């Protein structure tokens, strides 16, 4: 029989420099050219925040939150706890108590592929949390087993422990550590160009002229 619990070592953390770059990056900017690493859009933030950090992963089965409670005691400042609910959409594993524990550990956010609860307490804690929605039925300490710091599936995306996580009001993006800085710098440069374009449009230039769309339409009509 395999062990009911697997707890692998904590992953290396994303550097503070890369985290700072990611926190200047909009997920929707990266979405202009990247088509992978974005979790299902039904996983949305309960607060309007942008955060970035290091993925610490948990597989938490059905009505049980034993492994999740244990994981909270291992979190470090800068971590983002990523919870694979293994398909369960009925039981809320994350509420006010888990929020307090995660924030006390210095975690940046929680990402749950499933339901959460106690939204008023989450808001009062000012703790960023992404999930598939709210549910009144909660998990308990049933000792069913679980795994920590293993590859997990979150919204159709494989998340490895130590991956870079970027989450904002548009959604959640998972990046391999070796790609995070390059993507962030490219996004920041594009955002700066976008602001310049918006300024031109606000001044009267037509967006279709700037983007080239009008030229394509006129060519198609000729």
Offer a quick outline of the entry.
With 222 residues, the protein is of the alpha/beta class. The chain is built from 8 helices and 13 strands. The protein has helices spanning 16-22, 27-30, 66-72, 96-104, 119-125, 177-202, 207-211, 213-221; strands at residues 5-7, 44-45, 51-59, 79-84, 109-113, 115-116, 129-131, 133-134, 146-148, 152-154, 157-159, 164-168, 171-175.
Shape: elongated
> Which structural class fits the helix and strand makeup?
alpha/beta
Provide the gyration radius in Å: 20 Å
Distance between the ends: 72 Å
By DSSP, the count of extended strands is 13
Main beta sheet? 9 strands, mixed
Number of contiguous helices = 8
- Percentage of residues in DSSP E strands: 15-25%
Helix content: 25-40%
Mean pLDDT across the residues is 97
Would you list the SSEs in sequence order as H and E?
EHHEEHEHEEHEEEEEEEHHH
Residue runs with pLDDT of under 50 for 5 or more positions: none
Question: Overview of this structure, please?
Answer:
The chain has 222 residues and is an alpha/beta fold. The protein has eight helices and 13 strands. The strands form three sheets. Strands 1, 2, 3, 4, 5, 7, 9, 12 and 13 form a nine-stranded mixed sheet that branches. A two-stranded parallel sheet has the order 6-8. It has a two-stranded antiparallel sheet with strand order 10-11. A hairpin with a 2-residue loop joins strand 10 and strand 11 (157-159). Helix 1 packs parallel to helix 6. The longest helix is centred in the last third of the chain and has 26 residues, at 177-202.
């Amino acid at each position: 029989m395999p062990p009911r619990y697997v707890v692998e070592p904590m992953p290396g953390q994303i550097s503070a420099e890369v985290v700072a770059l990611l926190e200047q990056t909009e997920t929707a900017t990266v979405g202009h050219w990247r088509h992978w690493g974005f979790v299902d859009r039904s996983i949305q933030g309960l607060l309007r925040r942008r955060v970035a950090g290091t993925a610490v992963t948990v597989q938490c089965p059905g009505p049980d939150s034993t492994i999740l409670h244990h994981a909270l005691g291992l979190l470090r400042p800068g971590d983002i706890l990523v919870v694979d609910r293994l398909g369960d959409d009925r039981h809320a594993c994350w509420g006010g108590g888990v929020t307090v524990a995660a924030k006390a550990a210095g975690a940046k956010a929680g990402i749950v592929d499933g339901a959460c609860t106690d939204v008023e307490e989450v808001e009062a804690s000012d703790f960023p949390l992404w999930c598939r929605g709210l549910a009144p039925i909660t998990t308990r300490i049933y000792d069913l087993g679980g795994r920590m710091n293993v590859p997990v599936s979150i919204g159709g995306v494989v998340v490895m422990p130590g991956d870079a996580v970027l989450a904002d009001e548009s959604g959640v993006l998972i990046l391999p550590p070796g790609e995070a800085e390059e993507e962030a710098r490219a996004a920041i440069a594009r955002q700066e160009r976008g602001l310049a374009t918006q300024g031109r449009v606000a001044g009267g230039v037509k967006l279709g002229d700037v983007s080239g769309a009008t030229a394509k339409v006129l060519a198609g009509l000729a």
